[in-house]
Specification:
324 residues; alpha/beta; Quinone Oxidoreductase, Chain A, domain 1; Rossmann fold; 2 domains; seven-stranded mixed β-sheet; six-stranded parallel β-sheet; 10 helices; 31% helix
């Protein structure tokens, strides 16, 4: 028996239950991992609420974590018992012990601690595809990144600054503005006090930015579009305040022949080679010190309900982990 956080019925944070469950021996292609730390992400809230349905119910949620290999299946040759590993994009991590297909398991470098890995894999690989694949930023770009003091924002801002990119970021409080600035955000905008679109136009001499990274959703969608330069790219990769409103594609033409995408990390790491590319690039920038992972909140796994409440209430900064 092992302890896990599961949902039996989708709902609010109180839908999370701390259950004792049986874990079978790994199947022939599986790796069994004993987690030392697990990451908290907004996608966990989406799985819990039913916005992103889980394959079955009840189901263990959680998409990233790090630990040690406990057992391996007969067809597994890449991993060994006792090896340090991590998960960055696979459902089922809110548990003490879990079985995962070997295709989603990543070897963890000795230089990176378990808690750091648990705090960075999904968020860091998200930053990778945002900055290096959807729109490949350069030192000559100015970008707008919403929630710059959050989990993805903290990593992405540092990564962008290591490339030389100028970063404008939105934040919800003076404390978060200071945090974002300390991590390299050139121009933190307090979105509750200032119109971020007007500020972006001011900071770019009226031109707008070539790309906006928006995980907020409905509350910022129109303003994000209006922050873009002609031919700009709108990347809406989350919806913390709810989905974006319905709109006509003609709106994109009216606002400057804009592009829009609604990506998912799962598609960008579906191939093993792409998963390893993203993970290894992330390991490199963390090991070099260009990106520092800030674990600003820790909860016991059994307290996942409170962790979800704090995340949704915007009480967290940087990365949050759960300790099994």
């Amino acid at each position: 028996m092992t302890n896990a956080i599961r949902i039996h019925t989708p709902g609010g944070p109180d839908a999370l239950t701390y259950d004792k469950i049986d874990i079978s021996a790994p199947s022939e292609n599986q790796v069994q991992i004993r987690f030392k730390a697990v990451g908290l992400n907004f996608i966990d809230c989406y799985h819990r609420s039913g916005l992103y349905p889980t394959p079955s119910l009840p189901h263990t949620i959680g998409m990233e974590g790090a630990g040690v290999v406990e057992a391996v299946g007969a067809n597994v040759s890449e991993f060994n018992v006792g090896q340090r590993v991590c998960i960055g994009a696979a459902l089922g991590c809110y548990t003490e012990l879990g079985n995962f297909d070997q295709s989603v398991v990543i070897a963890l470098p000795d230089e990176i601690e378990f808690e750091t890995a648990a705090a960075m894999m999904l968020k860091g690989m998200t930053a990778h595809y945002l900055l290096r694949r959807i729109y490949k930023i350069t030192k000559d770009d100015t970008i707008l990144f919403h929630a710059a003091a959050g989990g993805v924002g903290s990593i992405a801002t540092q990564w962008a600054k290591s490339i030389g990119t100028r970063v404008i970021g939105t934040v919800g409080s003076p404390e978060k503005a200071e945090l974002a600035k300390a991590q390299g955000c050139d121009h933190p905008i307090l979105y509750r006090e200032e119109n971020f679109t007007d500020k972006v136009r001011e900071l770019t001499n009226g031109e707008g930015v070539p790309v906006v990274y928006d995980s907020i959703g409905g509350a910022t969608f129109e303003g994000s579009l209006d922050s873009l330069a002609p031919l700009g790219m709108m990347v809406t990769y989350g919806n913390a305040t709810g989905p974006v409103p319905d709109f006509s594609p003609a709106l994109l033409a009216q606002k400057g022949s804009l592009f829009i995408t609604r990506p998912s990390l799962m598609h960008y790491v579906a191939k093993r080679e792409d998963l390893l590319w993203a993970a290894n690039d992330l390991f490199d920038v963390v090991k070099s010190g260009a990106v520092k992972i800030h674990v600003n909140q820790k909860y016991d796994l059994k307290d996942a309900e409170q962790a979800h409440r704090d995340l949704e209430d915007r009480k967290t900064t940087g990365s949050t982990i759960l300790i099994p």
